[in-house]
Fold these 4 entries.
Entry 1:
Amino acid sequence: MKSSLSIETKLPTHGVSVFSQIAALAARYNAVNLWQGAPNYSPDQTLIDSATEAMKAGFNQYSAMTGVATLREALTEKIATLYGTRYDPETEITITAGGSEAIYATIAALVKQGDEVIFFEPAFEVYEPVVRLQGAKPVPIQIPLDRLKIDWNEVAAAVTPRTRMIIVNTPHNPTGIVMEDEDIAALTAITRDSNIIVLADEVYEHVIFDGMEHRSMCRYPELAERSVVVFSLGKTYHVTGWRIGYCVAPADLTSEIRKIHQYLVFSAPTPLQVAVAKEVSRPESYQRLRGFYEQKRDILTQALSTSRFKLRPSHGSFFVLASFDHFSDLNDFDFAKQLLVEKGVGTIPLSVFYGHGAETGMIRLSFCKDDETLREGGRRLSTL
């Protein structure tokens, strides 16, 4: 059926995401899933049991718009312990339907028509279209793929009187880079004495490797007072389908974000919030993630050690970049499709992480998979 109505699209340059296209092809060819940033293994049974118990106990209706109190209180203690800043669970912490909803609500609440928003490409696909939906101007800054370091001089030059927000993502999807002291110092200097809001996407806060440290915006008072920091409990507890995230921010920013949040979803699933609250109160439930995922990264990189791919160092997130342009002339989308059809391995072309596309000669591989999947995917790719 087709409507006879006249419709003017709000996102004329966007169609069905490449993620959906890859998913359809992967299903057709029964491909090894190295494309999706979602685990293929089960969460801890204690978490499943807690969710079941919460449902049986009657936690099946809407929670407070702000989120279940016990979860917000547990998060207050967690952030204070890890990052030294105590957020008020009543006025500064909001439970959302995943990290993406928190990002959308934040941009919709705090960015208006004519504003400019700086972010770093390659970038998580949500940022750019959400900025456009507000009538604002996306200002992408390229992360050089040969050295994977942000050029803060370029960022400073991109700031104008219309700059309302800078979006940072650490650990970074898809490159795996992690912000370091010099990055924090540069961001602080650029935003000092300005009206710029920092939106910090920190959903991979516990997935960080090689002895590196997660530098949360929560940790730095001068940044914390202008930052909205987004986290994902789905990523932390291997339950991405539960759609449980949260954001923390000063009370005046939080008040505006909640105005949007209440009309998007009102609340995240109540029994799942109750279940996750118990896990948050057990530090060992997230402290073990560093070693867990570092081992998975190493399994995949070892499985690819005899392949023709050149891997970029990944210090965090679920992902590693692999370059192929030294042995193939295909663009990255066609190359990823070739891997699906000929090798039965699903990957993501890096160009999809750029607002207007970019030929990178790279693909993104996900290692949040069971060991057998990682080894089999590496084996197949090594036959190329």
Note: The chain has two domains: 18-43+285-382, 47-282.
Entry 2:
Amino acid sequence: VRRWFDEIYSKKRVELMNELHAEDYVWRGPGGVTITSRDGMRELLGVYTAAFPDVDFTVEDQMSDGDQVVTRWTARATHSGEFDGIQPTGNSIMFTGITISRLENGRLVEEWENFDELSLMRQIGAVPSSD
């Protein structure tokens, strides 16, 4: 799981997904979004890395129990590409999240992820700040 954050998210080594993910990998994200394949996750990563090409993830805490790993993380990036219809702002962004990962035979098979999507959207100007 740590390699996922360090190698795939931060270093953009998506070729490692074949090694680290089961083919029928399932990701459940904010707003009820569900992705049901390794290739679907690769596509989602492409959307985020196009908008935030310099994204860097810091693993703040990580703990495991049996076949599950919980990771609390912080992402930092620059909004350099279009995201969700919002043109690049050049804004530096930072948001936090938690991912629960389930593994089988050393591969990621299922993840539940929640992150501060509202904060992200505010930082790129898609949602007005409450200030």
Note: The first strand starts at residue 21 and ends at 28.
Entry 3:
Amino acid sequence: MLCNELGFGGLLYGPPVIEKINNSYEIQFALQKQVLRQDARIEISTLCRNTLKRISGINAFIQIFESVLGMAQGTCFSNLSLGSDISDLYWRYKGSPWFKNLVIMEMIRLCSIPQLNKSQETPSTPFLVVNRINNVEIPSFKLVDQRLEIFVDLDLEGIGQWKHKLSVFISTPEQLTEGRKKAQEINYELF
């Protein structure tokens, strides 16, 4: 269940309970326990995708956010459910006022709905340090080198409110089709 007003989501523990009270309905949701968040102040490091130099701290998280948002769901052969739907949403809702809210919902999903990764023993989310999506702004639909500029306002574990500009890769419809086909073929051969 995703709630864009709260910038929060989670997996349902059971079916919702719906009660009629006077002339209105009340819906109650029981959510499963949230996955533990990683403190964003803890030093992590990764390789910079442009220079292959080691980057750490918040710069590493920025690259992780951009990579997760830019990897189209269904294009990772080792796990077809990894990635985001932002490229699909971009081409379907380009120019629409709906696009911003759909990107917010996708980001809420990425920070709230856990997946069990083969290399991990416990479920985690792609945005493991994000507690909440406060806001997202998309100033223009113009792509520069297939990248879309997105301004995010997030609540990071251990830091609090954090605002930054992300540059998200947007696959073309042809790249999406080809990437998903190749990933499915490799996944089928390996697994």
Note: The longest helix spans residues 173-190.
Entry 4:
Amino acid sequence: MSESKSRQTFELPIEGFDLGFEGVVPPGRVAKLLETLRWRIARGGEHPILGTFKAGVLRAQTLELTADVTMGDVLVVELWLSKVGRTSLEFSHAFRKSDGTEIGRATCTIVAIGDAGPAPLPPGLAEHVSGESAIVAPPVEAPDPARSYVRRITVRPSDLDLFRHVNQSRYVDFADDTRYFASHEGHEAGFSDRVGLVSVSYESELKLGQEVEALLELREDGTRRFGIRRVGEARFATRGVVAPRIRGEA
């Protein structure tokens, strides 16, 4: 681990259980690896910011992948604090293989939680901002149900984390799965290429046993609007953007 204020670098070896059915690490697993890294350094006191507040929940994240990662690779992750608000902060990530091949970038917005909800952050955290955002999140809009591919999902125990709601990485999996099924069924919103971008805004918790719909809508620019809502409700619990990897990228 190297350190400069809040900017630190870590290595994550990729194991066989990290791979998806296509033989590479899927985007949801990348999101989970980054989350696990943040948890590990927060609990271990290895970072000057993570661990300075009682608890936090992920409010939004954006993940860009430009190349594949597979078993035997070592993911080198650079992590830094890029924004600080009153109750939230943003961490940025840049990751590459140990041979220098760039893999992608990510940002996540974490809201500090106290006993009664969002809690003010400790003073002075802005001093630890160590660079700009790794990637700017695209605007998120709810998909139009009339133009969307719709997939029904039942929230399973394996979707939950220790807070007993759907883990943040599973929403990324839901987006990845939905584009795959849409493509397989010939819907215009689907695509068979690798996911190059997924950006998710978490607006309402999903819990065990709930019946939800994942919607995916093709936009004119080639990106897709993504959303999840409870069956029978118009309001979306999650909104986001999904896009295929640009052809020519590894």
Note: Helices lie at 27-43, 168-184.
